[in-house]
Amino acid sequence: MSDVLLQATGLRLAFGGVKAADGIDLGVMKGEFLAIIGPNGAGKTTFINMSTGYLRPNAGEITYEGSRITGLSPRAIVKRGIARSFQLPQLFAEHTVEQNIALAVASRDGIWSPLTPLLRPGYRDEARDLLDRFGLSAIAHARADALNEGARKLADIAMAVALKPRLLLMDEPTSGVAASEKMGVVETLARVLRDAQVTAVFVEHDMDVVERFADRVAVWSQGRIAALGPPQQVLSDPAVQRDVIGIERHA
Amino acid sequence: MRKIEPFLALLLAAAMITAAVTAPWLRFVLTIALAKGIAVIGILLLLRAGQVSFGHALYIAFGAYTVAFLAPRYGDAVVLLLLAAVGAGLLGLVIGLFVTRYRQIFFGMLNLAMSMVFYSLLEKLYHYTKGSDGIRVEIMPIAGQTLDRVAYEWWIFGIAMGLAFVLGFLIRLYLSSPMGEALAGIKTRETRLEFMGVPARGVLLAAYVMSAMLGGIGGAIIAMTSRHVTPLLSYWTSSGELVFIAILGGAGGVLGPFLGAAAYELVRIYAAASFADAWQMILGAVLLLVILFAPGGLWGMAARVMKGRAQ
């Protein structure tokens, strides 16, 4: 049995004259944490959007556990075990944090029960467990639109984890998080994902985070993968340091 | 506040019954208020998803004309209420499949267009509908019992009250269920629902069908109470009236529509009696005051008072 969970082959997508994906070939291995780095506009988010059904590539295909998922809707892809979080957290603003997570938990059952409460013991307990694991218990009853950016990011990711995915794609999980909180947030995240045996792909701009948590790094440049390998090897590559990390440090 | 909602509902019901007993002419007004309150719960459902329908009078008219057309053949109020609810639900499903593809102003205006098409049909198909003359509805048996006029009116009032309680209770459960909370999610993060595997359009369609059924039930009660149906029931001003009541009552809980409907009907009756030429202006002023000083409507005001007392 192959160890490749997600395989992208020859992905191409252009917006007018801009090539957001220009022949992407990438395999995501089961159990790994794969970081995607690169300058703004390199096509990192586009890759996540294509992998989760939000965008359809002009050419190429994506397979997940050996089955083609190119062109499937986000809903169909979620049901296969791929979840995502967002660069700008997508929380239900008028709900509490606990309700947000509980709704994600309930969505696994299809949410079509009209007469039993969302915060029934089963969903509520699982939501509280997730809140606990993400260190969000203290703000469980706060409205989502009242949270700081770090808490919003964690809640957003917790919602994705509540779907019990086998593959989680995260778009800049630490952007907007205070520098002093960043490592703590990622430590929490890594622990939860490893415990749940979730394979993770994450777009990241902080090289310290990448170096510490990624098993492999893919460097994106102008819609292509410029380098791929272990962090120590990739991040010490002079070309990557000059063309990407130099830019990252100034981004 | 949610905990004392049932208590407040009982209090409002007691006040309505007392008013209907002490001033029998109010029984008619309050029955209409209950019927409109039931229909406005449907508006509340759509507001929960951030959508406003400017055409829900269509379902009220459909329910009312169902009673008018079928009363001679299936002349029992209970049967006709069921037929009106199911018929309006089916119509809501057909129209909902189309309008739930749209959001915001497009959703609102498409509903308005549908209700005006129905209004035109009721006006133009004179042979069947008697056009703007409307159709008279005779007093009908209730659960097989033939009643005199006063007993009949009391029974319709009681049925409206009973339905308000049962439907209000069921909608209250629904709104706090995963399905109801997902409906609220459409208002703030519809995209997220899709990425959770939840079909947002399906969630809205289900709410739309429910709102149509509530409109149909409200319309059936109005027909049984006023005993005369006209195309005006489907006119755009009637849809606006439902939105008016929803804002007046507040969308925070299922009691809001009934508070709003009772206040609306009473203000209208008293304003029309006291200032025959200016009652619309008084209603408009009331709505302005509510929007400016009580954006949560009467229900929001009640909630604030209760909260203040609790502290």
From TrEMBL, chain A:
Keyword field: ATP-binding, Nucleotide-binding, Transport
Pfam family, any one: ABC_tran
Molecular function terms from GO: ATP binding
Segments forming domain ABC transporter: 6-247
Position of the signal peptide: none
Stored PROSITE patterns: ABC_TRANSPORTER_2
Matches recorded under InterPro entries: AAA+_ATPase, ABC_AA/LPS_Transport, ABC_transporter-like_ATP-bd, P-loop_NTPase
Origin: domain of life: Bacteria
PANTHER family named among the record's database cross-references: ABC TRANSPORTER ATP-BINDING PROTEIN (PTHR45772:SF2), CONSERVED COMPONENT OF ABC TRANSPORTER FOR NATURAL AMINO ACIDS-RELATED (PTHR45772)
Name of protein: ABC transporter ATP-binding protein
Species this protein is from: Neoroseomonas terrae
UniProtKB/TrEMBL annotation, chain B:
Cellular compartment(s): Cell membrane
Residue ranges the record marks as coiled coil: none
Membrane topology, as annotated: Multi-pass membrane protein
Transmembrane portions of the chain: 54-71, 77-98, 105-122, 154-175, 196-222, 242-267, 279-302
Pfam families xref list: BPD_transp_2
Leader sequence segment: none
Domain of life: Bacteria
InterPro entries documented for this protein: ABC_transp_permease, LivM-like
CDD domains on file: TM_PBP1_LivM_like (cd06581)
Major site of localization recorded for this protein: membrane
Protein name: Branched-chain amino acid ABC transporter permease
Keywords of this entry: Cell membrane, Membrane, Transmembrane, Transmembrane helix
